[in-house]
Amino acid sequence: MTCKTPRIILALLLFALRLSAHGQVHDFPLEVSTTNPVVTSINGATGAQTITLTWASVGTAQITSVVVPANFSQQSCTQFSSNQSCGMTIFYQPATAVLGSVSGLITINYKYSFNGENGNQQTVFNVTGVTAAAATVHPAFYILSLLYAPPGNASSNGFTNTVTSGTTTTIGSSFQDAVSITFTGGPKGLGGFSLGGNFGFSTTSFDSTATTDTYMSATGSQIVSAEDKVDHTQDIVFLWLNPQLNMLQTGTSVPANVSYSIGVPFQSSGQIDAGLPEPMDIVPIRLGAMMTTPTQVPLGALLPQTVDDSKGNPVTGLPGLALVCADHHFYPNSCNQQNQCGCVASDFTQIVNQDVLLGISNTEAPSALDANRFVSIESQKLEGPQCPVGQTCGDERNTFGVTDSNQTVVTKGDQHAYSVGYTVTYGVPLIWSVQFKQEWTWTNMESKGTINGTSHQAQVTLGTSTHECFENVPIFEDTLYHTFVFQQPTTAGGC
Description:
By secondary structure, this protein is mainly beta. The chain has helices spanning 4-26, 299-302, 349-352, 366-369; strands at 30-32, 38-42, 47-55, 60-67, 72-76, 79-80, 84-92, 100-114, 117-139, 142-147, 156-158, 164-170, 179-185, 197-203, 211-217, 222-224, 236-240, 244-250, 256-263, 282-286, 305-308, 314-318, 374-383, 398-403, 411-420, 422-426, 440-448, 457-462, 470-478, 483-486.
């Protein structure tokens, strides 16, 4: 008996090892990169989603059949060798174009060969088909940024060559119905404008419903001051004249789910790069030019714009500022500087009103008007030639970068909204059900601290040709546009 016991134990161990080896083959299934792919059909058209199939084992595998739910189909490779992957494209086309979703199981049947053993196995996973409705919205304009004029007749204020976050904006007030909004993306700079800047859009770290515009300048986009005193009629607003929002509505629940991205239309057939995105059509305008009667907007800003696209080719016929105005009968062929293409000051009220400093004394601290929107940052010197008029001495110019990098905690402040006209096109068939209001409303949010991990910054030069001028200039941040504001010192300072 003592001799047989080791033999029995050995036999049992060998049997267990054979079972273990056989089990290892079955423990290496045909793997899928996601176990619940979502395939979206827009307005009832065929939607597609590609996943990855991987045979994560030695030996070979061959797909023998794939069973999919109704209204789904698929295309994929069928043969796999050791550790091989390939794509499976899943298609979904609903039987009827009705908002909603369906789900079911996809079963992949395959046979394998491993170490002389053959067998059959299957991989099963869930798939969801979503029928969404599309709408494309074309607001008349979007205010990208507001640059404030500094004191000093040789001063300037502008963007830097580092990407900086600007205005944070959401669109929820444009809907009559309750909606759950998600921002999904936007352009990372689709073109330039006459001052050499570049704008884009990104998600917002503290609010998934909002988008934050970004700006930078390779050449230093500047507002150049013409006088020693702070004059907010010289402030410059940057207007984006061809914004487009691509919107998807999924489901009919309340609140409805709406996601959106922001971008530009595609170039028309008459352009060199037809079918590619248009460049961003951005026009910088001095606020004072829109406030007078008659207005004094440069004719070049009112007329159709020409901007180079991402390939460097000119795109002609982009909207001019005159399309913002109510009277279009001069536009574009009968426009001139005198008739202003039919524009009057009241056409620009919504734009001008965004600069709340136009209504206060230039010696009043901006924070006295709105302590949440305007935050003190630092002070810098403005200095002219320190000798009497008629004598020659050094020209003192103070060039520096201003930043809010010391404000690291993100806090949200008040909201400021403005409304514009818009047009909207829907997909066919029309299954969009959420209603828009009569005007499109952009809602901007104040915020202090870093957005998306970056501080806000600007490049500033303070200088003057006025002899014996010397002042310390308080500097504030506008937490709405994340640009920087200057207070005229209350002391005379010889300026």
